[in-house]
Structures are given as C-alpha cells and as structure tokens.
Write a structure and sequence with these properties.
The complex is a heterodimer. By secondary structure, chain A is mainly α. Chain A is built from six helices and no strands. Helices cover 74% and strands 0% of the residues of chain A. Chain B has two domains: 102 residues, Rna Polymerase Sigma Factor, Chain: A (Orthogonal Bundle); 76 residues, Orthogonal Bundle (Arc Repressor Mutant, subunit A), CATH 1.10.10.10. Chain B has eight helices and no strands. Chain B is globular, with a radius of gyration of 18 Å. The interface between A and B is large, with 34 and 43 residues.
C-alpha cells in the first residue's frame, strides 16, 4: 500500500508540485526502496528520450499550399461584402432622389399657391372656430324633393 | 505592421475585415507548434502536412466560434489534437479492412539500412507511442514532447488537471513496460 502510494507521489513529483509531507515521504521511500529509485531513473530516461525525439516543422511549401486553399474563402467573403456595399449604395441613391423629388413638388405647390397642406403640417396653430363652422367652404347637397 | 498586433487583434481583423495579411500572420506564428503536435501524433508522413493545413482551414471557417477562452495557440493545438485523433481512428479502420502488412501505427518508417543510431532510438520511441491508447498518447505528446504545462495540457484536452496527472503516470508506466526489452 505504502509502495503504491509512494509510486503515485513519484509520478506526481515529475509533473506537479508536492507539498511538504509528500516531499518527505518521497525522499524516505527513495532511500528505503531501491526498486522505486530504479523506476525513477527509468522514467526520467524515457522522458529524456521523448524530448530528444525532436520536433519537426512543416515543409517550406506549407504556407503557399495553405494560402491557395484559403483563397476561395477570402474571395467569397470579399464578393459578399461587395454585393452588400452595392445594395446599400443603391438604397442611399434611391432615398436621396425621392427626397429631391419631394422637395421639387413642395416648391412647385408653394409657388402655385397651394400651401394649405404645408401649413397644416408645419403650423402648430389650431383652426379657429369660425373657419370650422364656415358652411360656405363645404358643398352641401340639398334634397330638393 | 501585423507583427506588433496581439493574437486576439489579428483574429478580430480576420473576422471583421476579412484580412488575409492578419491570417498569414496567425499561420506564421502558430505553424511550428501545430507541426510538432501533428507529427507527434501521426509521424512523418504526407498526411501530417494535410492535417496541418486542415487545422488552419477549420479555424478560418469557424472563426466566429473563437471566443478567447483559450489562447489562440492552444485553441489551434486543440483542433490539431482532435483532427489527429480522428486521422488515427481512420487509419485503424483502414487497417482493419486492409490485407496489407502495415506498420502497427500506419506510419511509414524509412528503410532500416538508412537508419542511424539516433533515428533508431526515435523509431523505438515512436513505435512504443503507437502502442499506447489515444488518451495516453495525447498526454504524452502534449506534456512531454511538445512541453506544454500540465494546466495547458488539461485545457487543450478539456479534462481536469488531476486526470492529466493520472493519465501521465499510467502512460509512463506503460511506456516503461513496452521499452523494457529495448533497454541498453
């Protein structure tokens, strides 16, 4: 049981920090148990061999090949943003021309003397009682029978 | 200009402005670490470079999913680990349905006449690694070959630190048993 526990602490010591009691137990176990110390040597040797395995990088063509593959992604995104830009621009042009036409119509109406509608829109004044009851401004159909 | 930007700023540039230059900088910064991981899992073969390219393509296509919880490098390594494990599974399936005499892990080893002493050591380690199950192989490659910290390894594999430590212990025990006949 103690052996199993010290083996666990041995492996833990290689990859993480031990607390004081674990450090003490490991030191004692390594002194008393030659099998444990040989395990430590073997594991350390394996770890060194793994590090010596070396790290290999990709070939020099890696980036060029990758960028050829990503071309379609960037192009499709560029196209979709271009379509969006054209749509927004057309909408803006349409709105500006509509506003311009409305302005021309208003000027024409004003110059022709038809300013009642504009007055009613921009005037905050309420219609007076007299004009409200001015029957002459309305066409009254009278049944002559 | 882009080399002074942080990883997160580069991602934002790719995401919002469709910047190729920023993407190229991301590739330049992370290419080597992806290579170490992919070659660690798959060995020196043609597939490794394709998987490496697939890592960056996946990242680009799902760039909206990158939320900065992991660092960019570790996020890419996580994709590399997942793709490499998928490739290993594919190889196992291919091997099951194949009558060819393939190497145990499917890696192409060079002819023995060309192998020098250093390479021989490397081959022994590679074949020992190939005998480990995927979860043990992953912790050994990330922690002991790529030299990520235990915490980073846990983040990349999405498991608790305790699990990484216990898997490392078991994996090293298994490697010790496998490598016993090759002991000098």
């Amino acid at each position: 049981m103690k052996n199993k526990n010290s083996k666990q602490i041995l492996f833990k010591s290689l990859d993480s920090r031990l607390n004081e009691s674990e450090k003490k137990l490991l030191a004692e176990s390594l002194q008393d148990d030659p099998e444990l110390s040989s395990t430590l040597n073997e594991v350390s040797e394996i770890r060194n061999k793994l590090k010596e395995c070396g790290k290999k990088d990709f070939s020099s063509e890696f980036e060029a090949k990758l960028f050829r593959k990503t071309n379609s992604y960037f192009l499709s995104n560029e196209n979709s943003s271009r379509v969006q830009d054209v749509f927004v621009l057309t909408f803006k042009k349409f709105c500006l021309s509509a506003a311009f036409v409305l302005m021309l119509l208003s000027i024409y109406n004003l110059s022709a003397g038809n300013n009642d509608l504009i007055k009613s829109v921009f005037s905050s004044q309420a219609p007076d009682i007299k004009s409200s009851f001015d029957y002459t401004s309305q066409t009254i159909l009278v049944d002559t029978k | 200009m882009t080399d002074t930007l942080s990883d997160f700023e580069l991602v934002e540039l790719v995401r919002n402005e469709n910047s190729r230059v920023a993407f190229n900088e991301i590739v330049k910064r992370n290419k080597s670490r992806i290579a170490y991981t992919v070659y660690g899992f798959l060995g020196n073969c043609d597939d490794s470079e394709d998987i490496g390219q697939e890592v960056f393509l996946r990242f680009l296509n799902n760039i909206k999913n990158f939320n900065g919880q992991l660092s960019l490098g570790n996020y890419l390594v996580k994709i590399a680990v997942n793709l490499s494990l998928n490739e290993l599974r594919r190889r196992k399936i291919r091997k099951l349905f194949s009558f060819d005499k393939l190497q145990e892990d499917g890696t192409e080893f060079p002819a023995t006449s060309k192998v020098d002493h250093i390479n021989e050591n490397k081959l022994i380690i590679e074949s020992a690694l190939a005998k480990l199950s995927d979860k043990y192989k992953a912790v050994i490659i990330l922690r002991l070959i790529d030299e990520y910290s235990t915490e980073e390894t846990a983040q990349i594999l999405n498991v608790p630190v305790g699990t990484v430590l216990s898997r490392l212990a078991r994996a090293q025990e298994k490697l010790r048993e496998i490598l016993k006949p090759h002991k000098d």
